[in-house]
């Protein structure tokens, strides 16, 4: 008998998680390269943001290794898999958060592509220079998030994907020889990186707008999948509770899902089982489920409807300077009024500042 | 009695009849089922179904050939019930057999029924160890089960023992079946994990002491009246000499450990030691291989003692190296009845555990899980005329097989499940001609090594089918009536692991007369007593409206799933199209103006307005950048 040195499930899990992370990271890096390393370059800001992305990635990896190590330690120490009891709640929470962040960033990236090059540089520079202190805790937090978005996105992604991978690999190494683990981990990482690098290369060298359109589509596909998966995770956790264990352990057939919530169920292509193989990749990119629930299908469609509506509304506003169905006003008065109607809280805050400029207010609505 | 005799060949029948009439007595029991409270394991007091306000239930006793009358009243107040006299052939009285919706309607709350039958069979007098229990809605583990002994003056071992000891073993649950069954037959229990009992009982108690005298031989009559767990039984320092299983006397066989599944009986002789220097433990150990989980603190052994000297201590039971039981397949019936000839009808049943479309776990013979018909099957047989010979009238889900008079019937049972199943046939003993080891797979009649049948096969009424193994049984269809063949693990009954043998239906129509009180309880509950399984009294072959099992789980994409998937794909494509449209469009006029204005303002306010309005402005910047 040959020594088992390559656990296929481990490979697929590592590859899948690396791929999902690599998509995010490479899109961000390609974007930075395109906007800040182009003709009207600003090497300082570029470098700074470039580093942010990698810091986010590295920091996320570190934290997930620490938490993962702790969990594995706890497993051996307490003899009980604390994580798996609530695993899907975590996965679901991470997924929904990641989905929202990706959605916002995706739109912002796409919008930037429409700006003229010199504007972008200016904006990026302003972002870098501006302080994160000043008014209001809420505002500061928001600004902090915005300033460090290039950090946060990869951080969250790596944390989520990494934890998933660590837990899975830990689980496998409990049941199969440890010798089967390192090789597929390395190969999986390399394969994921390779795809990410290709994406980056392709993105960084193609026409910016085209690249952004394609990559935004990709990001939104991932985000839609994440959103749907989040709901699925929550429901599956409930089902696991009902069944009194990990339903995935009973395989992909009867009993692995709640029949009353099922929209479709096929006994193949379970992305959670043994790493999921190609279906796991399919799940990572498009949110595939072999066992779709009403929740997962409806949330997927609702997500897209929201995205479509959002973009149509944004486009309308870009063209007409107001939201659909909003009263048409004189141009000068309109922005103030709109901002007011959108958020009385923000407005109160603004009115208090007598020196608030029209620019400031109108900037507000761009955000909306 | 006269009816039963009509099946006998004249001469022996007459002889037998005379001998019986000479000795036969009538034994009458007035049984009133009520809830009482009991705490047999000392851990938990619970409501149990008692008889005449008492629990444990009375042990029924009769002599062979006696007429037994049970005036049975249901005063439970919240449940219907029945009584089944396990192992008795009910020859000529199939309607006294007891399964609800099979040979009778369940006795309603406040209702009553008379069970009236004799304890002899067509060929030989029936005697030995039996038991009685409710045969309705998985009810008997709530306590309504007890031994039933039929003594025989002609007992071949009657001179071989000094005293008789009746011993029941049972698993015990703290919750009632009405609580446990919905938890078990539940979509959240997809693997069909059976509830694990909380305790093991002996004679419905624990730490039993059996006073014995040295140098004597005792006849132990043991029965497993449990719902689920088979039990290994051994006596420290003593051997057992098996002489009867399931009411069939056997040639004496020595055993150091026996296994009694739910519903099986085993009588054995045990000779005590000649000294009284020590007391001895004997143990009934539940077969934990049946349990999907082992709850913390489960005490699966029940230990009792043979007490030679009550002043001496009761020793702890010692650990045994392995649980290796006596193989009951090797037993030889005392009457040495030869192997039946090649069968006239072969019934092949595959045991399958699976889920149906409601997600719940079910048990199947072949592809059918049992569902009670609207009309008790016996009543269908009695009222459907010539069509009664057509299995169709009994409904697909009662899984009927019609057997002709004096046919040799072979039942091949293949276990496609990984659990043990004690299969029980009503109305007959069967010859067990094959019983494979675990993992032997399906029986193959063309494989000569599998068809080396014993010339004098072991007979009993309940046999353990091993995990992924097979067994082949033969019996002669000489007992008109409706007889169930089912797994005697009560959970599996609830899951539908039942088939119905309808034996000589036309003969039944001629010779059976359903007692009026049996019909009355049907009428009081508006249960039809005529027609096919669907209650159709006009067209017996029209089963429209029959009780059915849920549909199977969809095998793959249903139209609903395809539509959902198509919508999702469409949504994604549309979404990407909108993103592309948005991304490729120029910045809108209004937006462009604002952006220019903002950038201009940013330049101007960079130093001066940072302090107050800068925060707002930078807000913007950040945003646009992201």
TrEMBL record, chain A:
Protein name, entry field: Plasma membrane iron permease
Family: Belongs to the oxidase-dependent Fe transporter (OFeT) (TC 9.A.10.1) family.
Annotated region (Disordered), positions in chain: 328-368
UniProt superkingdom: Eukaryota
Predominant location: membrane
Any GO MF annotation of the entry: ferrous iron transmembrane transporter activity
Locations listed in the record: Membrane
Topology of this chain in the membrane: Multi-pass membrane protein
Transmembrane segments: 6-32, 53-76, 88-110, 148-172, 178-199, 211-234, 297-314
Record's keyword terms, sorted: Ion transport, Iron, Iron transport, Membrane, Transmembrane, Transmembrane helix, Transport
Pfam families, per the entry: FTR1
InterPro entries associated with the record: FTR1/Fip1/EfeU
GO cellular component, one term: high-affinity iron permease complex
TrEMBL record, chain B:
Spans through the membrane: 562-584
Domain spans labelled Plastocyanin-like: 33-153, 164-309, 370-505
Keywords, comma-separated and alphabetical: Cell membrane, Copper, Glycoprotein, Membrane, Metal-binding, Oxidoreductase, Repeat, Signal, Transmembrane, Transmembrane helix
Localization: Cell membrane
InterPro entries from the UniProt entry: Cu-oxidase-like_N (IPR011707), Cu-oxidase_2nd (IPR001117), Cu-oxidase_C (IPR011706), Cu-oxidase_fam (IPR045087), Cu_oxidase_CS (IPR033138), Cu_oxidase_Cu_BS (IPR002355), Cupredoxin (IPR008972), CuRO_2_Fet3-like (IPR044130)
Bias-annotated ranges (Basic and acidic residues): 608-626
UniProt cross-references to SUPFAM superfamilies, sorted A to Z: Cupredoxins
GO biological process, one term: cellular response to iron ion starvation
GO molecular-function terms, A-Z: copper ion binding; ferroxidase activity
Membrane topology: Single-pass membrane protein
Gene3D superfamilies the UniProt entry points to: Cupredoxins - blue copper proteins
UniProt region (Disordered), positions on chain: 593-626
Entry's family note: Belongs to the multicopper oxidase family.
Name of this chain's protein: Iron transport multicopper oxidase FET3
Organism, as annotated: Hymenoscyphus albidus
Taxonomic lineage from the root: Eukaryota, Fungi, Dikarya, Ascomycota, Pezizomycotina
